[in-house]
Structures are given as structure tokens and as C-alpha cells.
Amino acid sequence: MTGEGVLSSGLSLAELGQRIRTERRARGLSVERLAELSGISRSMVSEVERGAKTPTVLVLDRLATALGTSIARLLDEPAHGAMRVLRHTEQRVLRDPSGWERRVLSPVLGDVEFEFMRTTIGPGVDAGEFAPHAPGSREYLAVEHGSLRLTINDRPYVLDTGDSVYYPGDCRHAFANDGTADCVYYLAMELGGAGHHDARKEPLHG
Predict the structure, then answer these.
(1) Could you tell me the sign of the dihedral formed by the alpha carbons of 54, 17, 91, 178, in that order?
(2) pTM of the predicted model, to two decimals?
(3) Is 197 helix (H, G, I), strand (E, B) or coil?
(4) How far apart, in Å, are the Cα atoms of 41 and each of 16, 68, 111, 139?
(5) Among 121, 68, 66, 63, which residue's Cα sits nearest to residue 96?
(6) Are 169 and 131 in contact (CB under 8 A)?
(7) In this structure, are residues 177 and 121 in contact, taking their beta carbons and an 8 Å threshold?
(8) Is the pLDDT of residue 9 over 70?
(9) In whole angstroms, what is the distance from residue 70 CA to residue 53 CA?
(10) What is the pLDDT of residues 156-190, one digit of tens each?
(11) What digits encode the pLDDT tens for the residues 138-149?
């Protein structure tokens, strides 16, 4: 993501921060508890909520995971009606400074916790490790082109063009491109029970 104060498709950092704050308060979480659950410092959580800091994709994912939801829900309002067409220019795109991009292809649907995305990782780029999602979560991945090193709980798997894989989303998973060309893959993520932490009824602070 850029440091210009605006995410793709015109979503401002202030709007993103407000959505994170709304999700946190809906779950009865304090800033301190969200920081504890996500592994993100309290000061960072506070700055992101105030729109004063641009989070990396990993930070945003950890906050979404701690809230029992997806990045997509933090970036978009729920769709209404039986059908939703997402034009290319309307899709939310997150660009990480380390050299990779996540494009969210699925709309947010009511209480459905599902995310379909297209990710591009540049050559030699390590996108980092993502925290386990809620128990019962599932992820399905297919490589469009290039080579991807997928690491599940410290065990690496190399996936090449046309390869696909399923793995439980409630484990540690990391993505890296050790090749010399871009790697592009599609990932569908189905989250388990939302709000899986035990702190939903904490008193609010902040």
C-alpha cells in the first residue's frame, strides 16, 4: 500500500480506521485487547483507527483475523440484492511496500465470511507469514503462472503454474516467490465461526 493516505478505489485511511473501530466495538473489545489478540502494538492499533498510519497488508490481515473477519469486510460495505457485479475499477486493491499486491474479487455479503482474491508477488519477494484464522477456516489456492513457495506451519511446498492446493486456514501460512518472474495466484478463503475469541464482552475502552 502507498503512504499517500488513501487506499485503492478511493477508500481513505480515516474510513478504514472507522471501520476497524466499528468492528472492534461491535465485539466489545478494547484497543488493548485487540492489540493483544492481533500481536500488533497498542500504539499501532490506535494510529490505524485514527487514520494516522497506513497499515501493511500483514498488519491489516492480523487485525481482521483478531476481529474474526476478513480484510474484504474492512474495506467494503456489505452488498445488497441477489447479485453484485464488481467492475475491475471497483475492486479493492492492496499494495504492500515489499512488492506484492492483493486484489479482492468478491463482494462482502451480509454475515458470510468469504474472500476471493488475486495476488501478484514480484520475483524474490516474501509476502510474510499470516496468522491462523478461526478454527474451521479453509483456503483454496491455484497458481495462474509463476512459482509460489507456500509454507504451512513451517513446512514448505513449491507450487508451479497450474498447481492448486487446499489447506486449513486455522494454521500459520506464508507466501513467497523465489523465482525470477511474477507469481500470480488465486485464493478463496472461507472463515470459520466469526468472533472466535473469548473477549467479546469486555468493557470498552478507547
Answers:
(1) positive
(2) 0.82
(3) coil
(4) 18, 18, 28, 27
(5) 121
(6) no
(7) yes
(8) no
(9) 20
(10) 999 999 999 999 999 999 999 999 999 999 999 99
(11) 999 999 999 999
Whether the pLDDT of residue 3 is over 50: the answer is no
DSSP per position, 46-101: HHHHTT-S---HHHHHHHHHHTTS-HHHHHSPPP-SS-----GGGSEEEEETTTEE
pLDDT of residue 204: 35
In the chain, the DSSP E strands lie at: 92-96, 100-104, 114-121, 126-130, 138-145, 147-152, 155-160, 164-168, 173-176, 183-190
Residue with cell 468493557: 203
pLDDT surpassing 80 at residue 7: no
The amino acid at residue 146 is G
The cell for 64 is 481482521
Q: Name beta bridge partners: 142.
A: 164, 186
Beta partners for residue 156, in sequence order: 151
